[in-house]
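Apologies for my clumsy wording, but could you write out the amino acids of a protein and the tokens describing how it folds?
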Amino acid sequence: MTYYTVCPDCGYKLLKASDGSQIEIYCPKCKAKMLIEIKDGKILIQKILADKT
């Protein structure tokens, strides 16, 4: 099965992927960095916060 993922911040359509995928991506629209994992039919999106040091 193919899943579509959108950016949780701006709603931009990021990618389509299948079960077992693990992707690290920057949103081209809002520049947010996130880790996307598709496992057992569930999509987990973790936003990666930038270091400001």
Remarks:
- The longest strand covers residues 33-39.
- The mean pLDDT is 91.
- Residues 20 and 39 are 5 Å apart (CA to CA).
- The domain at 2-48 is CATH 2.20.28 (Rubrerythrin, domain 2).
